[in-house]
Design goal:
disordered C terminus, globular, Na+/H+ antiporter like fold
């Protein structure tokens, strides 16, 4: 990145940081703003400025952003606080998510003639995780019952980590079929298992040390947050060095850290979230710069149909089935089903597919993922506040006593409250 590129990107982040509250009240979210900025800087009137993300920079940025998101989301989970919601959470993650992946894969095979099965699985798995940040104004709206927001938040925080193994195995299988593989699906599974073990060890040990250090006052308060960020990077890097999967190590490391460190450790996670939020702005910018225009140029009716069905039937039907008998009420189930935006994790998976398979091989999958995410960014960003305000009061589940609020993700993963 040249000095001029850095100046432009820094100015965009500064402008968003100073105007974000005002802009988000007009339903202009950070993903929309930075995707548009990426398109304008590379394919619009500002293209002569020459802002072009280098492939190696985009790859590193996407991977490290996903590491921080996986670690911070997992470390936020508190089984004690979520005990009353354990059943619907497990239903969404254990039933709804696999159904969404399976239906998404089957639809890709049905719509796209000649599509390889592994590439269809890439599409289905990459578009299964949700991103509550795209409906951030809904997530802090008190009109929506706390329990409904908690369910959406927890599902969004954990389903990207659960979907990651499916994506990585599918990429390994597709790479073999396209003769660009370094490892196969069996080796990918072995890496996933090793990553789980390394992540559990690093995260658990780091969480225990953090709790002891906080209790005895050993650490400087100003460096406590960066220490947790370094632990996330350590889990990822240790796994790579030992030939494990770094993403799974980060996710399991976050779970282990949260369990071992308790509240003392979870209070330090916001620093990791804010850093991940900053990097995610750059990921959205890169997404707009390198993926949007090629996808729109190659747009087909099949991709449009898939995107529409992915955000509706493929999401809402599994959620309805998973939550049958959960006592939430029909309106709440429909609300949860609709607010399953496709966001940062799907973008990162698309960028990884481009890196691992090449533009020619990954093109069909990246096109579908891009169109679906773009549609989600617009629809969910525009409907979050109106639907929360209009239908939120009708969504009180039977026996809902409110319960503890989940801390929302920060920076772009959290929308400011209206004055």
């Amino acid at each position: 990145m040249s000095a001029s590129d850095l100046a432009i990107v820094a100015a965009l982040i500064f402008a968003w940081g100073t105007l974000s509250a005002r802009l988000e009240r007009t339903d202009l979210t950070a993903p929309i703003a930075f995707v548009v900025a990426g398109v304008v800087l590379t394919h619009g009137p500002l293209a002569p400025l020459g802002v072009t993300p280098a492939p190696e920079t985009v790859k590193f940025l996407a991977e490290f952003t996903l590491v921080l998101v996986l670690f911070s989301d997992a470390s936020r989970v508190s089984l004690r606080e979520l005990r009353e919601d354990m059943s619907p959470c497990l239903r969404l993650l254990g039933v709804g998510l696999p159904l969404t992946i399976g239906l998404g894969t089957a639809l890709a095979l049905a719509l796209f003639t000649g599509l390889d099965g592994w590439l269809a699985l890439v599409i289905g798995a990459a578009l299964a995780p949700t991103d509550a940040a795209l409906g951030a104004s809904m997530m802090i709206n008190p009109a929506v019952p706390a329990r409904i927001r908690r369910l959406i938040n927890v599902e969004s925080g954990l389903n990207d980590g659960i979907a990651t193994p499916f994506v990585l195995i599918a990429l390994a299988g597709a790479a073999i079929d396209e003769h660009v593989a370094s490892i196969g699906p069996a080796e990918a599974v072995a890496e996933l298992v090793l990553g789980m073990l390394i992540g559990a060890g690093v995260g658990g040990a780091g969480g225990w040390v953090t709790r002891i250090a906080r209790e005895r006052g050993w650490g400087d308060e100003g460096f406590a947050g960066p220490a947790v960020l370094a632990l996330a990077a350590c889990a990822y890097a240790c796994s790579l060095a030992l030939h494990g999967n770094g993403f799974i190590a980060a996710f399991v490391g976050g779970l282990a850290f949260g369990a071992a460190s308790g509240q003392a450790g979870r209070r330090l996670v916001p620093f990791v979230e804010e850093t991940g939020g900053l990097l995610s702005l750059l990921v959205w910018l890169a997404f707009g710069a390198i993926a949007v225009v090629p996808a729109l140029r190659a747009l087909t009716w099949q991709a449009v149909v898939y995107a529409v069905l992915s955000l509706t039937v493929l999401r809402m039907a599994p959620v309805a089935l998973a939550l049958t008998g959960a006592g939430l009420g029909r309106a709440a189930v429909v609300f949860i089903g609709w607010f399953g935006p496709r966001g940062l994790a799907s973008v990162v998976f698309a960028l990884l597919a481009l890196e691992d398979l090449g533009e020619k091989n990954a093109g069909p999958a990246v096109e579908v993922i891009t169109v679906t995410v773009l549609l989600s960014v617009v629809l969910h960003g525009a409907t979050a506040e109106p639907l929360a305000r209009r239908y939120g009061p009708r969504l009180v589940p039977a026996g809902d006593a409110g319960g503890p609020e989940l801390p929302e993700r920060r920076l772009i993963r959290r929308a400011p409250a209206a004055p």
